[in-house]
Amino acid sequence: MGTWPIGSAWGPVKESEALAALRAALDSGVNFIDTADVYGDHASELLIAQALKERKAAGKTAPIVGTKIGRRLPEQRAALYTYANLAPFVDDSLKSLSVDALDLVLLHCPPTETYYRPDVFEAMDRLKREGKIRFHGVSVEKVEEGLKALEYPGVAAVQIVFNMFRQRPADLFFERARARQVAIIARVPLASGLLVGKFTSDTKFDASDHRQFNRHGEAFDVGETFAGVPYEMGLAAVEEIRPLVPAGATMAQMALRWILMHDAVSVVIPGAMNPDEAHMNIAAAALAPLSPETMAQIRSIYEKRIKPAVHQRW
Ligand SMILES: NC(=O)c1ccc[n+]([C@@H]2O[C@H](COP(=O)([O-])OP(=O)(O)OC[C@H]3O[C@@H](n4cnc5c(N)ncnc54)[C@H](OP(=O)(O)O)[C@@H]3O)[C@@H](O)[C@H]2O)c1
Hints:
- It is a single chain.
- By secondary structure, this protein is of the alpha/beta class.
- The chain has helices at residues 15-27, 43-57, 83-97, 118-129, 143-149, 173-179, 210-213, 231-241, 251-260, 275-283, 292-310; strands at 32-34, 64-69, 102-108, 133-139, 155-161, 183-187, 267-268.
- The chain has a 7-stranded parallel sheet, with helices on one face.
- Strand 1 (32-34), helix 2 (43-57) and strand 2 (64-69) form a beta-alpha-beta unit.
- It starts with 14 loop residues before the first helix and ends with a helix.
């Protein structure tokens, strides 16, 4: 489960609803949660800590929690990704999540130059040696950044946007990551909800929702909002995909199952705002594999409608 939507930048979310979504996901068998220190200034981490505490008290298993650091630096410059600057972020997340060691810490979409600085990755190795983190990796914007990250032996996981509207990672990156036994975390699997098939040209988003305020990349990389697909273009492609949805499934479930068709993917992290969304998304894991014909049709819709706008950009 991805927890950006219950942390910040997705319009108002009630804390009780967010916690209920987490509980529902974990009780249904979700075993990996993605978060970040900046999702509501540790708000998402604190909610996760609450859910973990409840599970511990009830004798239930704990999920793996991956968090991300680096966006709280005063400026996004590679030279600032130092041990001295990063270590306090790790300490803060340890406190917020209320754990002795963080399962997984990813650098949170650092500037491209960061990937060319071995010292940054050595800083993460050091935090691992100190026992503060168990594994580290990077959340990348671009395929090329992911490929570069694979060169650092300490990198255990790469998080990347991958969905029916962002297919390039499957071309080369997956094969390379798999050869290196690096975990692939597929994010933005529903293209911020576009691939749910519920939006129209008239859909209104709250002013505090990035689907309103970052539609053209005004606040951060536009690739994080609707996977970088221009809204109307995405809506038109969704209408072509709609007839392909298997009987008894929703489009969101098909979108998630499409990702699971790629064996190199270790984990998919759909965001969910409430227990219903969490349950619906989990059910995708039980869907039958998509047929080769459906996979080919999805590829052809991507090639025709989406690829020119996104493929070479990330
Ligand atoms: N830079 C980074 O490292 C980075 C960037 C982006 C995301 N992430 C991580 O990746 C996770 C997943 O990406 P995302 O949350 O941005 O996008 P996403 O998973 O593609 O879309 C999530 C949104 O889709 C809607 N939705 C989800 N399930 C649904 C369902 N079953 N039925 C109807 N609507 C549903 C919800 O919004 P509404 O109900 O409001 O439509 C939800 O907030 C994030 O939560 C975060 O953990 C990381």
